[in-house]
Amino acid sequence: MSTPELGLPMVVPAPDLPARVRIYEVGARDGLQNEKATVPTEVKAEFVRRLADSGLTTIEATSFVHPKWVPQLADAEQLFPLVSDLGRSSGVRLPVLVPNERGLDRALALGARHVALFASATESFAKANLNRTVDESLAMFEPVVSRAKADKVHVRSYISMCFGDPWEGPVPIHQVVRVCKALMDMGCDELSLGDTIGVATPGHVQTLLAELNEEGVPTSALGVHFHDTYGQALTNTLAALQHGVTTVDASAGGLGGCPYAKSATGNLATEDLVWMLQGLGIDTGVDLARLTATSVWMAERLGRPSPSRTVKALSHKE
Q1: pLDDT at 318
Q2: 86 vs 293: CA distance, rounded Å
Q3: CA 258 from chain center: how many Å?
Q4: In what order do the strands lie in the sheet with 62-63?
Q5: Which of 49, 84, 145, 260 is spaced 20 to 30 A from 91 at the CA atom?
């Protein structure tokens, strides 16, 4: 008998936590873009549909980055039409990553209504990932945000290396705040604070969130994106929840990393996050059994087991 059938996890709420958390599912994009093998388009589409069937309402579908840089997602034009009906029929948000105006053009041509940019808090990562300085990348984003907002498209921006950088080491908090403020000032609706190499700790998380609030960036506009390199992703998530954050990025089965930061291991697994939130009595709308089955299904197609501890525990057979 599985643990959910036994009534586990036992629900014991903790004080001063949000009643509901929106999970921003990144497995189909951030997860699959880091796979060595290219996943067939039909399998990606089925993955997105299964994720939606599990109750996830925000699923990042693909990336309109040039295929030269992310060949695993070169089929964006073919994939998006295969899943776009989810937005119309089920109200599922299907954000897509766009690096520049060309990427925005491609996304808008297919009817995308939610887009995401990817910025950097450090010069080294901006150079490696965008081939630009931080300020040059912000300048590149301005017309993208302006055009998207004029078309009433929701704009999110990821900010990578918010807590540590593999080339520069610790990242000063004021440096992160400057980039976040610039993105909000240009019109972004939402920011995702990325611990790209997984080095954050809870005090660091809460201090950064407090500094952003002091500089006028509201908690309601912030999401968090943790990697589990040092086993801190859930701990850091709880610290963010205690501050009032209600949007958490996660990847089904713990898929993903970062092709430009070799020390980055997998994202926080969505199943591990849901297990913790269920135990805290926090609503997510996600059916954990269905989600686990989806990650097992995807792991079989990738030819390796899921790194998610919850997936392993719930799919274990005697």
Answers
A1: 41
A2: 20
A3: 12
A4: 58-59, 22-25, 247-250, 222-226, 190-195, 154-160, 114-120, 96-97, 62-63
A5: 145
Q: 297 in helix, strand or coil? A: helix
Name residue 63's beta-bridge partners. Answer: 97
Phi, psi dihedral angles at 217 (to 5 degrees): -95, 115
Per-residue pLDDT, 259: 44
In degrees and rounded to multiples of 5, residue 317 shows phi and psi of -120, 135
* Closest residue by Cα to residue 73 from 101, 99, 109: 99
Q: Could you say which DSSP state residue 32 is in? A: G
**CB neighbours (10 Å) of residue 132?**
15
Euclidean distance between CA atoms 66 and 103, whole angstroms: 8
**Closest listed residue to residue 197, CA positions, set 120, 139, 142, 136:** 120
Q: What residue has token string 């030269």?
A: 68
Structure tokens at 60: 């990042």
- Tell me the whole-structure pTM to 2 decimals: 0.95
Block means of pLDDT (10 residues each) for the chain, length 318 residues?
78 97 96 87 98 98 91 95 91 96 97 97 95 97 98 98 97 98 98 96 98 98 96 97 98 74 71 98 98 96 92 81
Catalytic residue among 162, 180, 188, 258: 258
For the question of residue 162 being annotated catalytic, the response is no
| Per-residue pLDDT, 87 | 83
Q: Report DSSP state, residue 269.
A: B
- Tell me the one-letter amino acid at 209: L
The token pair at 8 is: 């586990």
Residues 304, 313: Cα–Cα separation, whole Å: 16
Query: In Å, how far are 6, 93, 185, 254, 289 from 2, measured between CA atoms?
Result: 7, 31, 48, 21, 10
